[in-house]
Amino acid sequence: MKVIGYTRVSTAEQAKDGWTLAQQRKDIEAECARRGWDLVEVIEDAGYSGTNDERPGLQRALTMLKKRQARAVVVARLDRLARSTQHLCEYIALCKKQKWSMVALDVDLDTTTANGRFMVRVLAAVAEWESEVNGERVRDGMAEARASGKVFGFQAQVDPKTVQQIVKQREQGESFNAIARKLDAQGTPTPGGGARWQSSTVRRICNREAS
């Protein structure tokens, strides 16, 4: 089976001993050799946070998987791919839709196996629970603020037309990441004047409007 290796370190992690890009590559190469997998390429992102969905190496790996140039992506540790359960489940949904697999060597996450697919279902359930809990907290906080006559700075910073666009695209089934990328492409100003739109910001807006 043809697979892609993916490695990542953030700026802070680059200074640490024992968890370098080279070490991750070594672990991936060893496991692929043990399983008899054809390691097509090891793609790296140096100096990128796991909370950043727009890592160039990750995006290239996802493109290769979509084009069927490999059937799986292998990481030495799960947090190299995603830092949150929500982000991880977005990648899991993508791999299911596009029919490729995901393997993390530090945990039993291997969607080529029955155990791995079971773990995916558990993670999806946890992500759904987290989303519901966060949504309840947002709604409760907004209700309390409205009752006291307060207006959050975040709410005031988002143009109503932008909010309508985000809600409409979300209702049409677009992911938070896809919506954020479109807003960047359109040059839409971000809340607080940040450099780029983040999927977490789009998610907050959708949760707020659903309350």
UniProtKB/TrEMBL annotation:
Q: Which SUPFAM superfamilies match?
A: Resolvase-like
Q: Which UniProt keywords apply?
A: DNA recombination, DNA-binding
Keyword DNA-binding belongs to the record: yes
Which CDD domains does this chain map to? Ser_Recombinase
User: Its domain of life?
Assistant: Bacteria
The answer to keyword DNA-binding applying to this record is yes
Q: Taking every annotated instance into account, which residue ranges of this chain make up the domain Resolvase/invertase-type recombinase catalytic? A: 2-149
SMART domains in UniProt: Resolvase
Q: Which Pfam families does this entry report, sorted A to Z?
A: Recombinase, Resolvase
Q: What is this protein called?
A: Recombinase family protein
